[in-house]
Design a protein that fits this description.
Layout lengths: L9 E6 L8 E3 L1 E3 L12 E4 L17 E5 L5 E6 L7 E3 L3 H12 L4 E4 L16 E3 H10 L5 H8 L3 E3 L18 E5 L2 E10 L17 H11 L15 E7 L8 E3 L4 E3 L1
Parallel strand pairs: 9-10
Antiparallel strand pairs: 1-2, 1-10, 3-14, 4-8, 5-6, 6-7, 11-12, 11-15, 12-13
Length: 264
């Protein structure tokens, strides 16, 4: 067992009810039948062909702001700079779909899957895990970007406390391995370091591209790869945080702030 197991705990849990939009910090999250954190990416905006409307596809997403009521059943949406703040019920999608269609200037519908959500990786559909120390290390590479700004760029679900950068790289193993670890009462499997897309290269508020972000990130990541990180898992170094899955037997358990990390 790693010495980090005695010191590292869950410091933050974020869920993103509508895929691609702003997240919500919660104190705990139940594991659903589909192996996700409850409420995480359970709604998705899609066009007439069923394709996702997200930051990978259009920077227009960055102009959207949202705020959820505590129940996560109502959302307030607005465009940056607009004083109007319309509120919508997620239990009655039609008004929200009309508003989104006007915003994107195309037909938009909301798909809903509270069981398994809409993950980017169907095999590693569990929460993404990162450490605060890793975020602070990356923030040192980009002093013009705040720590909060980096969180919003990378959109990880679980943030671990601790003072060792890239300690989360211990949570994946050799190619093809599903490495078991535990957070509190919840058992997870670490799959691989998460391959990042274009979204982290953009300012989450303006959509403005940070020039050279991907290239410089990959260079720094390779240079600072810790000895416990299996380099065979990096076909490139634009990878950050750990993709996971949650076994079916964990359904109904809860992941909580303060839960200890236990490594196998």
């Amino acid at each position: 067992m790693s010495s980090l197991s005695n010191t590292s705990r869950v410091a933050r849990i974020d869920v993103f009810p509508i895929k691609s939009l702003t997240g919500v910090s919660v104190d705990e999250a139940r594991i659903t039948e589909g192996g996700i954190l409850e409420h995480d990416r359970v709604w998705a905006m899609v066009d007439a062909e069923g394709a996702y409307l997200n930051g990978k596809r259009t920077p227009r997403v960055h102009d959207l702001r949202c705020h959820y009521e505590p129940s996560l059943k109502e959302v307030t949406l607005w465009e940056e700079g607009d004083s109007r703040r319309p509120q919508f019920s997620l239990e009655d999608r039609a008004p929200l779909e009309r508003w989104l269609s006007d915003f994107f200037e195309m037909p938009v519908t909301l798909e809903h899957d509270p069981r398994g959500g809409f993950p980017d990786d169907d095999e590693a559909s569990g929460p993404t895990v990162v450490s605060e120390a890793s975020l602070r290390e990356v923030q040192s590479w980009y002093p013009q970007i705040s720590l909060a700004g980096l969180r919003r760029r990378f959109r990880s679900n679980i943030e671990l406390e601790g003072d060792v950068a890239f300690s989360e790289d211990r949570l994946f193993g050799a190619p093809g391995e599903r490495k078991p670890f535990q957070l509190g009462e919840v058992a997870l499997l670490g799959h691989n370091p998460c391959q990042r897309c274009v979204v982290p290269t953009r300012d989450p508020d303006t959509g403005e591209v940070t020039r050279g972000f991907q290239k410089s990130f990959a260079q720094q990541r390779e240079r600072r790869l810790p000895p416990w990180s299996d380099s065979r898992r990096f076909n490139h170094y634009y990878r950050f945080a750990v993709n996971t899955s949650i076994p079916a037997v964990e359904v109904g358990k809860r992941l909580r702030i303060g839960d200890a990390l236990i490594e196998s």
